[in-house]
Amino acid sequence: MAVWLCFCLLFVTGPDPGVSNAHYTQKAAHGDSGAAGSGLITQVRTRAEDALDPGLPPDAAALLQGMALGDASHMSSRAKEDFRRASLTHVVAASGQNIALLLALVLPALGLLGMGLRARLVTAVGLVALYVPLAGGEAPIRRAAVMALVGLAGRVRGSQADAWHALGVAGTVTLLADRASSASLGWQLSFAAVAGMLALGPPLKNRLEPLRIPPVLAEAGAATISATIATAPLIAWKVGRLSLVGIPANLLAAPAVAPAMWLGITAAALGQISTSLAAPLAMLAAIPVSSVLEVAHAMASPSWASVGWHPSGSLVATMLILTVFGPLAIGRGRKAA
């Protein structure tokens, strides 16, 4: 509770979340990766970008770089517009999904190498710390990294960290490190998406289970739907558009995201040694990447895919509160009954 009180105090006393922060707007406009402050990180990132472009079609290479490194600046204007209309821009924004998929790839791989659990977790902490600046070091990826580190620290101690507590710690730490984070749309969307998944995900998964959907698919579908629902009002508030195809577009693209990102991250790592070693994996990643591009284009094509809507800040706040706390209140009421 203390963590969340501190977070709320920092949030309400920080920059107006309804006003775009010039710092983040300027960086986004110029495709600034945020890694330029470190010569080593810049070199590693440059080699990774080269490894992820072994002669692929321009948008495929740009999307693969975006998915692995969080930089979508090289995508064509048409592709960017398709992703906006289909509510798929989060795919190329480095945030919690990148960290989660990185850990899902690295931890089992380290286990196959014979590492014990503690050694795997400590190594994972180091890799997350390296990946954050490599992926741009923006507010969303910092939030995701702190949340992941809280979870990894709990596992090192032999306990399971509470996800809501980890989210509160992540929000507090990122706001303490940079008070302007709350004005970043990426940070807002990242935070809202996780809160939505934690609140709406479990009840949605329970609704899907009677349909005989495999548990893994039910959990992934519930996470996708809940994150899309939680972020849609926020996007409309800041962008003035509401995607009517967001949920189906995300469900269709979801199966290809993890393979593309895993192949991309592995190719980027091999690219530090040789682009020739990385090329086969980057070429293989082009298959799921191309399917994501096709989904974005197909779902964004109808004229009604995206409509104008600019809700007030108070309406968005109300919707977010109901989205997050409504399911929690209902769940507690059922348990009490």
List keywords for this structure.
337 residues; mainly alpha; globular
What is the residue-averaged pLDDT? 86
Share in helix = over 70%
**Main sheet attributes: strand count, strand direction, barrel closure:** 2 strands, antiparallel
**Any idea how many domains?**
1
Which stretches are poorly predicted, pLDDT < 50 over at least 5 residues?
22-37
Shape: globular
How many DSSP E strands? 2
- Please indicate the percent range of residues in DSSP E strands (runs of 2 or more): under 5%
Rg of Cα set: 20 Å
End-to-end Cα distance: 24 Å
Name the assembly state. Answer: single chain
Strand arrangement, major sheet: 1-2
Order of helices and strands: HHHHHHHHHHHEHHEH
The number of helical segments is 14
Overall SS class = mainly alpha
Q: Any chance you could write out the topology, listing elements then pairs?
A:
Layout: H1 2-12, H2 22-29, H3 39-51, H4 58-69, H5 77-85, H6 96-112, H7 117-134, H8 139-156, H9 163-177, H10 185-208, H11 215-239, E1 241-243, H12 246-270, H13 275-300, E2 306-308, H14 313-336
Antiparallel strand pairs: 1-2
Describe the structure.
The chain has 337 residues and is mainly α. The chain has one domain (34-332). 73% of the residues lie in helices and 2% in strands. It contains 14 helices and two strands; from the N terminus they run αααααααααααβααβα. The protein has helices spanning 2-12, 22-29, 39-51, 58-69, 77-85, 96-112, 117-134, 139-156, 163-177, 185-208, 215-239, 246-270, 275-300, 313-336; strands spanning 241-243, 306-308. A two-stranded antiparallel sheet has the order 1-2. The radius of gyration is 20 Å and the shape is globular. Mean pLDDT is 86; it is low at 22-37.
